[in-house]
Amino acid sequence: MVSHVRLVVCVLAVLFGCHAHADESRPHIVILLADDLGWADVGYHGSDIATPHLDRLAAEGTRLDRFYVCSVCSPTRAGLLTGRYPDRYGMRDGVIAPYRKHGLPPEEQTIAEVLADAGYPRRIALGKWHLGHSSKKYHPLNQGFTEFYGHYNGAIDYYTHKRDGELDWHRGFESSYDEGYSTDLLADEAVRVIKDTKPNQPLLLYVAFNAVHSPMQAPRKYLDRYGFDPDGPRLKNTGGHRGGERDLEQYGKIGNGNTVRQTYQAMTTAMDDAIGRILQALDEQGMSDNTLVLFFSDNGGVERFGGRNTPLRGQKHTTWEGGVRVPAIARWPARFAGGRSVDVPIAYVDVMPTLRRVVGLSGQSKRELDGIDVLDTIASGATGPDRVIYLGDGAVVGRQWKLKGDELFRIDRDPNETRDVADEHPGVVAKLKTQRKAFEALKVEPKESGRFETPPEWRMPGD
Predict the structure, then answer these.
(1) Among the options 18, 45, 70, 73, which is catalytic?
(2) Structural domains in the chain?
(3) Whole-angstrom Cα distance, residue 263 to residue 220?
């Protein structure tokens, strides 16, 4: 009798477009990545910025209040996709700048490749790639994804979609001449993908917004929400990379507000609305219940570009908490109840091993993973092992302690890193330094080095 009922339910799900229960063993997976979003810049952390859709996601899911990433962009993205510290393949130090040749090595196994083995036919990457663009071997379509729409570099203009004077907007391998604000275009594409998803077709959708990274640009309707004065002064040098008049040639001609903070606020709310459209599309397609949605930022906010990380200390480019501890949420209604928060340390490298369990993969990974499966922590608050997470730049963190250089903090009681207690706990310092040394031994240099010239429309060479 039970099997007959289940059959009827499945038939009805197909007939009425209710995707959520089509295959609970293989849920849809949606990863939403913000760029340079500050700890204090979401509504559920008490921000003055309106983020109602992220607030809803936090209320319906689990807030991951000790979620750690790298202090800059490309290493976080690499570790997210591989489950391995970027030190292992030469990607710890900095971002993939426009002229740099290296990227995520093809021999690394990405989430997209793992989910292909698990029976996910559509594995789609949208937005900012930033994991190599000097050769097609670094392209998302050669890293396990079946579709790509977005840009290769960081810091593109939100309206012209240019970086260093060349168009950086693509569909697959080809240039795209779509017009519009990049945040809106990514939402449009994500909604299209969701609406095109068929029953019984598990989906991986990775949406990597370039918001709220500089250049500081926002649509007028969002600027108006934060007191924009069209007759007042405007931001000028908003690119933040070259500086001076050369920078003005590339950035800040469209969408710049009166102040950096005002523009940042507008950009954040615009991104939140884009996320709201994605969540609404999941609702309308009946996919929400059996979709694991994971949201977080690639690193902390940047003060000079309007971001705030208070009360945490530090910002992007540092391994203080404000640079590496970011807003993060997980929601999967079919698997765990919402309305909770967990204070257990979780890292960007934990996404891969957790997804392996989510999709039912067992056995050894093809590559040695540094992350761990944290599904039980997200679902029920289980504490799991008291492991140490490597943050780079001489910093490691665990459940109780954080070592940064020679300074030690009781991070569970002092999250704002106000008091160095190294002299009081020499044994803890010694142990953490030994663990840190083992992490530092993982580091290798990039397999490719050197510079290359900007190609027309950032077309990747190679087969």
Answers:
(1) 73
(2) 25-387 (3.40.720.10)
(3) 10
